[in-house]
Amino acid sequence: MITAAHYLALSAILFFIGATGVVTRRNLIVIFMSIEIMLNAANLAFVAAAAILGKMDGQTIVFFVMTVAAAEAAVGLAVMIALFRNVETVKADEVGALRW
Amino acid sequence: MFYPLAAVTVVSALAVITARNPVRSAMALVATLASLAVCFVALGAHLVAALQIIVYAGAVMVLFLFVIMLLNVQEDPHEGGRTGLKVAAAAIGAALAALFGTVLLRGGGSVEGAWPAGFGTTRALARVLFGDYLVAFELTSVLLLVAVVGAVVLARHDSDESDPGEVEEPQ
Questions:
Q1: CATH assignment of A4-91?
Q2: How far apart (Å, rounded) are the C-alpha atoms in residues B171 and B164?
Q3: For every one of its 100 residues, what pLDDT tens digit does chain A have, with 9 covering 90 and above?
Q4: How far apart are CA B89 and CA B114, in angstroms?
Q5: Domain limits at B127?
Q6: Which residues of B fall within a CB distance of 8 Å from A20?
Q7: Any CB–CB contact under 8 A between A43 and chain B?
Q8: Distance in Å, alpha carbon of B62 to nearest chain A alpha carbon
Q9: ipTM of this predicted complex?
Q10: CB–CB contacts below 8 A, A to B
């Protein structure tokens, strides 16, 4: 019997796949995609919670998460273009000008 | 139906973080997002599933692919380094995923079939969105406006020489 709890477990697995990607990869674009996986795992948890509770609030929050993720992607990729224009790289460990 | 779907989702998500070529990562991410949309349908969220395809698999992924190809990001021959660190990170991630997954699997409930009439429809979502969450909705529109203006300002190419933002010349 598949319950909404199975989808909650799937969202946990997806979240930690995304977190592992953020920690291990050095390409900023791939790190960005891993963040999108984490956001989508949170969305899946919200939708599963809405299905468990039988209320629409969870799905409404997903709407806001999607909007914020789209805004984040637009600004983040613009930052990446500006970064590439200045230092000619998108590797996270080659951008150390602010490191102390 | 759930287990093949979950398998496709997890495998494509793993492909995103393991592929050397960023374009392959993006394609695997499209597969992840599409299978998540199927999960949303299975959970009764039909409008959210449609938005997932349109906004994520459509708009956001086009943005990603555009930036990948604009910057001409190549496969990274050095990405394979630091193997011990990566194995440790993967082990910790798998352990945490197993822990959280088990806890959520045991604790969650199921009321499938007991949803109120019209659950997940556009009408039901719009009633909540433009009722309880009206202020948040309006603030979201302001956020999107700020994001668009910010993205244009950041990505704009300054052709004039008086550029205070340029800190470091590329070597």
A1: 1.10.287.3510
A2: 18
A3: 677 788 888 999 999 999 999 988 888 899 999 999 999 999 999 998 888 888 888 899 999 999 999 999 999 999 888 888 888 888 887 887 777 6
A4: 41
A5: 121-156
A6: 17, 89-90, 92-93
A7: yes
A8: 11
A9: 0.91
A10: 257
